[in-house]
Write a structure and sequence with these properties.
single chain; about 30% strand; alpha+beta; about 70 residues
Length: about 70
């Protein structure tokens, strides 16, 4: 899977994470989303969607929990 095709190089993204039947919507930086997806590819523990709608109102969504942990390599 090539995540570089559909992830923006910078800015915020709208992530939707599914844990069984519960959905969580978060805003996250493109770098954190990319690292989260790479981690998820190694061990799939949930379902992840990248919502391609504009994220102008990303400040209304909660930030990805522990987002700063996904900002490193």
């Amino acid at each position: 899977m090539n995540t570089e095709r559909w992830l923006l190089p910078e800015g915020d993204l709208h992530l939707r994470i599914w844990l069984t039947d519960t959905v969580f919507d978060y805003a996250a930086t493109a770098e954190a989303a990319r690292n989260l997806v790479h981690d998820w590819i190694r061990k799939r523990w949930c379902a992840i969607e990248l919502v391609q709608e504009a994220v102008e109102d990303s400040w209304l969504m909660p930030r990805l929990p522990c987002e700063r942990l996904f900002l490193g390599p």
